[in-house]
Amino acid sequence: MENQKTNLQGKVAFITGANRAIGLETARGLAKLGATVIIGARDTEKGEAAAESLRVEGLAAEFLLNDLKRPEDDQTAYDYIANRHGKLDILVNNAGIMVEAPSASDIGENETSKLPMEQLRETFDINFFAQVRLTQALLPLIHKSASGRIVNLSSVLGSLTLHANPASPIYSLKAFAYNATKTALNAFTVHLAHELRDTTIKVNSAHPGWVQSELGGKLAPLGIEDGSLTSILLATLPDDGPTGGFFHMGEALPW
Ligand SMILES: NC(=O)c1ccc[n+]([C@@H]2O[C@H](COP(=O)([O-])OP(=O)(O)OC[C@H]3O[C@@H](n4cnc5c(N)ncnc54)[C@H](OP(=O)(O)O)[C@@H]3O)[C@@H](O)[C@H]2O)c1
């Protein structure tokens, strides 16, 4: 996978959950390559502050209020991007939650049999249903791009192959709600990529690595900048790049 000299001048990217952590750093990285980035955030003050932090660096950044809990925000996003830009080149479905542990560092015993249904539903609502819904809503604008790219922020914790292997480093990390949503998101990647296989749009799942953020926790080995690299790589794939895959730093992961 090569994208070292990518020039994103004229390209428009929308990144959800981009007010902080991996999302903000992904936006910064894409803007540094020349893209106009739209910072999706559910809080106006935080989102505006994040966009302004990029603008003071001389980057092209806009803020768009987008709460994945609010289906009506999908149409608002469509209208905003359609009216202002007329197309969408890159969609990074970055926002995500883990409700069963304060952070990935805190995943404890396997409590699948006791997981409250509300936690399972809440996690699926944000990490899966909202991602599918928003992508469906914005797809007509992505079709208007010459080379649309959709990046779904999954996790290695969504890999059933690794979960089934006692020798895998993630074998004991059985946060059922979070993990299952990422497995489902991977299914969305595969199915949407197949539907779009004869178009110029590429759809891939990203595992950013175990990254120091609120979600990753303090024990994570990767910093935020490294954590944004996989998303940036997949958002800037060349036309002969892969689609329907699951990657970390350019390496394919098992489903
Ligand atoms: N960090 C890791 O080690 C790791 C590993 C594998 C995969 N991932 C995935 O990478 C993505 C980014 O993770 P991160 O570590 O940067 O997480 P984070 O620090 O917890 O940030 C999550 C982002 O999602 C936003 N968000 C949460 N609920 C939302 C909603 N209802 N509507 C819109 N935005 C919402 C948050 O906004 P607020 O600031 O308003 O809360 C925040 O901007 C996630 O999908 C995560 O699952 C992370």
Automatic annotation (TrEMBL):
<dbReference type="InterPro" id="IPR045313">
    <property type="entry name" value="CBR1-like"/>
</dbReference>
<dbReference type="InterPro" id="IPR036291">
    <property type="entry name" value="NAD(P)-bd_dom_sf"/>
</dbReference>
<comment type="similarity">
    <text>Belongs to the short-chain dehydrogenases/reductases (SDR) family.</text>
</comment>
<keyword id="KW-0521">NADP</keyword>
<dbReference type="InterPro" id="IPR020904">
    <property type="entry name" value="Sc_DH/Rdtase_CS"/>
</dbReference>
<keyword id="KW-0560">Oxidoreductase</keyword>
<dbReference type="Pfam" id="PF00106">
    <property type="entry name" value="adh_short"/>
</dbReference>
<dbReference type="InterPro" id="IPR002347">
    <property type="entry name" value="SDR_fam"/>
</dbReference>
<protein>
    <submittedName>
        <fullName>SDR family oxidoreductase</fullName>
    </submittedName>
</protein>
